[in-house]
């Protein structure tokens, strides 16, 4: 067996190691296993493959690329098994790395043609294979920082549509296929006319173009994510404004009743002077009926939130919904009053609306809010509903319109703002929502 040829092939297959590392850098927060375990797993697959492929290449005289390119498909599925990213993201990373890794090979061909101009076929020498491996490792080193600090944020963030990722796959594939087709069949080709210096210059330009495309993709995606965040913030502010208006209307109603009570006192005083007990009883009975729906129920010491709970309590009572609420909030509030009002307001509004989709005898709404472990607020909500939901990969959708559920999105945004999370689930008759938040 030709040892030099085998060693050259082995060094070329060793390029798979920096390529594999490049695939994991932008997905470092999405790895299913630890870095050490992933490295061992990849080594156990790649090392035997490299030695076996180099041996087959020499003994059977099989073209090196004919061995390498078909193996990229099972390698991709191995990559998919070790990361938690979806198919569009993982495919974009994988194809992008494959496209970038073809450029060191093209530069190595130029280098080898310089060392061995008389060589009949374009087949790497040991020096060129080592040069190829070193270039790939330098490329990995230069790619490491932007991949870990910049592209990781894009991979971790929810990009609105997978078509964006598939578009990068298409662009990367164009460069990948072009470089495969541009592999010289003989070094004599590179020494024809000006091709010797045009080839590396053109490859450098193509590599810079592909890198620029990736930078533009990153910038456009970041801008899109910022737009999504601004939109979510705008929706949250709309929800807060809505809850504020509800509070304001409820407080105005109770203020009017308190103001009108002065006239009732005067009337009762006049009737008492006349000894008209029947009229007094009639007036008190009418006043009790009128004020019953505005009788304040004390859920917490915060006036605004207590008014909000009172409003939705009366709304639930008017809809014949059985309610069982146990509210224990920290005093004083360590979370923004507007955020708390928006969270509870959206939660109660959604629950009451859902209860109204079932017959009156089946309507119930249970709500518990309590502080545990000194600084954690736990909110558990259970309500009846008709069992009809619209789900997508990113969560529940609104059943009132064709878009996402703004109420649930607002609740989630507020919970995450305070280092918490939201869990939503349902069965055929009940809807469950659990919120945990860290008190500041």
- Average predicted local confidence, pLDDT: 83
Share of helical residues: 55-70%
List unreliable stretches of 5+ residues: none
Secondary-structure element order, N to C: HHHHHHHHHHHEHEEEEHEE
Tell me the fraction of residues in β-strands, as a range.
5-15%
Span from first to last CA? 71 Å
Give the spatial strand order of the biggest sheet.
Answer: 1-2-3-7-6
Please give the count of helices: 13
Query: How many β-strand runs?
Result: 7
Question: What's the alpha carbon Rg, rounded to whole Å?
Answer: 34 Å
Largest sheet: 5 strands, mixed
Secondary structure class reads alpha+beta
The 3D shape can be described as: rod-shaped
Plain-language structure description:
- This protein has 13 helices and 7 strands.
- It is an alpha+beta fold and 440 residues long.
- The strands form 2 sheets. It has a 5-stranded mixed β-sheet, covered by helices on one side. It has a two-stranded antiparallel ribbon with strand order 4-5.
- Strand 2 and strand 3 form a beta hairpin.
- Helix 2 runs parallel beside helix 6, helix 5 runs antiparallel to helix 9 and helix 7 packs antiparallel against helix 9.
- The longest helix has 80 residues.
- It is rod-shaped, with a radius of gyration of 34 Å.
- The model has no long low-confidence stretch (mean pLDDT 83).
